[in-house]
Amino acid sequence: MPRFKVRYLLVILTLVMIGIAFWLFSGVTTKQLLRRSYGTVDQLEADTRPQVDLKLNLTVVATEIDKEPSFTQVEVKTESSNYKKLEFEFSHQALTPEEAIIAQELGLANSSAKKFNGKKQILIELPVILRVMKAEIDRANNLTEIEVSTTNSILTKFNLEFNSIDIDQVEAMIAQELGLSLAEVKKLIRYRIKK
Predict the structure, then answer these.
(1) Where are the bilayer-spanning segments (predicted)?
(2) Which residues, other chains included, contact 173 with Cβ-Cβ below 8 Å and sequence gap of 6+?
(3) Please, are residues 130 and 188 in contact by the beta-carbon 8 Å criterion?
(4) What is the pLDDT of residues 24-65, one digit of tens each?
């Protein structure tokens, strides 16, 4: 019996010694790693959002205006273009020159109308900074609808529609339509398949 107790104590003592050695070694190693200096870049690097200059020649089919206390939201539906819907937001304070031109193009300058139905050709040139693109693939109708969110104060969202469900082809068409590289499109786009 006493031999069994000695062996048992030797095993426990060995495990305790191994645990203490591991703990001390890991502490020393951690301190050494934390003391090392790591080279840094001279300037701060941040993800930049791509900016595109949209030149839209659209046929407006319908306009719906929603007036809020501090801004007016205008939803524009179009035809004969990849751009199917655009959402503009105008502040009620002094309009910037860009906002005034777009409001005049949309027929909102001196109008209290809530809706416009008819057809009107408009031409808009606007720099837009893109935030994210959400693509919904509709296999039943063989088309892909893309909702593009922006960081602009005027054009907040716009929708594109392409007659393809092939991801590579859709990304190439978006890149061509917006004047972006494929890498920029791949970085911004998220997909969802419509059931």
Answers:
(1) 6-26
(2) 82, 162, 164
(3) yes
(4) 888 888 888 788 776 666 666 566 788 888 887 877 777 777
Within 13 Å, how many C-alpha atoms sit on residue 157's CB side?
A: 15
The amino acid that residue 87 corresponds to is E
Q: For the whole prediction, is pTM greater than 0.70?
A: no
Q: State the Cα–Cα distance between residues 122 and 102, nearest whole angstrom.
A: 9
**Which tens digits make up the pLDDT trace of 116-144?**
566 778 887 888 889 999 999 999 999 99
Q: Determine the length of the chain.
A: 195
- Is the dihedral angle over the CA atoms 133, 138, 142, 145 positive or is it negative? negative
Do strands 155-162 and 189-193 pair parallel, antiparallel, or not at all (unpaired)? Answer: unpaired
Q: Which residues pair with 169 in a beta bridge?
A: none
